[in-house]
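Researcher: Here's a chain I'd like modeled. Treat it as a single chain, no partners, no ligands.
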Amino acid sequence: MSGNRPEQTIEAVLGRIKKPSRVVVTAGMPYANGPLHLGHLAGAQIPADICARYHKMLIGSDKVLFVCGTDDHGSTSEVAALKAGKSIQDFIQDIHKLQRTTMERYGINLDNYSGTSTPETFELHKNNCQDILRQLHQNGLISKRTSKQWYDPKVERFLPDRYVNGTCPSCEAEKAYSDQCDTCGAEYAPDALLNPKSTISDATPELRETDHWWLDMWSLTDPLIEWIESRKKLWRKGVYNEVINTVLPVCSFTKEREEDYKAIKSDLPKHKARYAPGKRVALQFMNLKELKAGRQSLTDAGIETELKDGWAYRSITRDVSWGIPLPTELDPEMADKTLYVWPDSLIAPIAFTQVALKNKGLSPDSYKDYWTAPDSRVFQFLGQDNVFFYVLMQGALWLGSQKETNRQPVEGEKQLTDIFGCFHLQINGEKMSKSTGNFFTGDQLLDEMAADPDQVRYYLALLSLPEKRSNFDVDHFAERNRFLAGPMNAAFEKPLSACLKKFGGIVPEGKLLEKAQKETYKIVQKYVRQMERAEYSTLLYAIENYVRQINSLFAQHKPHDDRFPEEQRADALYTCFYILKNIMIMLHPFAPATMDRLRKSMNLPEDVLSVDELGKPVAAGHKVSEMLEFFPKVEDEEAK
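Model: Modeled as a single isolated chain. Structure tokens:
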């Protein structure tokens, strides 16, 4: 063996895993305005639960917290409650109970499912938010700006853009939003909208001046770039490419000056050029220093440039009463404003962690072991359309609230998190839509289609949502369920049945077959690598191929047929139990209830559900239990 080649044993593979000291897993927070739909489960809650269960098997359940909660504040919940004729608190409480029940039905094992407005969370959350705002203000990263916003004189409140409809000034389509038209794609200033109407009261809204705080993310560009580039090998391509191409600084000039640019191109700092809308050429530089030098060289050559920094300045307050109040000592004039729901929801998992620890009898202050220790990890699962906020805005909140903002976090400061984005789930090839009926809530799938939660979990994990929009196809779902009920169940049942009927319920003395050892080494390598990256789809297909070994061993060596040589049969059955134990461990995060029934049938203790148990045989002489049912049986369509 080469001295540079890693040792090729399962024990060595497991020994090379970098185990964090603590782990927090979060999932994208649902609005408190309705039941959980299948997209919530597919893109956030179920992949997060799989990740949390894996890390509990990796470092111990006492070191892992899976937290989430409803996104209670802001106009969305306030308007939904108004339309339902309920108080906000009563409306949110009802929705919260509904969502929690759905989570429990799917085996989503949260350590805390709270909400940003719940009594146990609100004070902790308010303090966390206000502490961050004070530090951002002290670091000069908050400024106050005046802008015009729609105001409904009938209900006496400011309106978000999406609560004003009118006639598009470009194509004259009805029900265009106040800032853009979904029919023709036009974007325009709010005062250009024709015949504006409030969607809350149907009154004609007015544009009134209002003050808000704005977050300066531009000043944090360089540390944001450094962090994002350090995650290039871990993060999904869709996440990495979106945020790195947003944060790398860009300037542009008119295409008419392209030849002048080419004459000095080689003298500019390293950059990438591309054509941009409006007959312009955009130049992307590697950091702010090189952008500044590049712009100066272009100016010296008589080329006027325009900075593309629109992404980097965002309003972080709103004229809404239902939310986190601002620290008024910073600016008494802002006393009637609240924190915008995006920074509110980004900060919320810290309070959810504090509540989870308190519920376990621990100090809420021990959240620092999870959020501020360099050897801890925070994994966050969310829709791809929210990646900007979880990476760039959250990164700016964390970096901007440090004592020194131009470097990466150190011990005791909030550590930057790992972000896993998922694209939208479609139903039968089309976008989910309540109005067309092409829509499933999580409960509908279980109640109306009589699906088993583990069937749904497994199928959603098979989809390619981390890479592209994927389809929940009812026929394909049924086909995959037939596989689980057929070949997969057969691989579970055959060793148990043969052991009970032919070997007195005792795992026989046997020799581990070499091919099974080699295949196990390969699948364990793949398992730990892809679970770390939350790449579940290709992993599950690889595990299915690994499962097929059991059926092959039964076809070849006949451990269930005592007409064949006993030693051959004993070796095959001993090997089957070795494979079966590995399958049970690897599939536990995906189908926990089913794998727990398999564990009980094998008569193994709960602590066997550990990554360290991969590759360890079931001991000869071990007594198995009565065989339970595994994945639900599926009626053959042709037999109907």
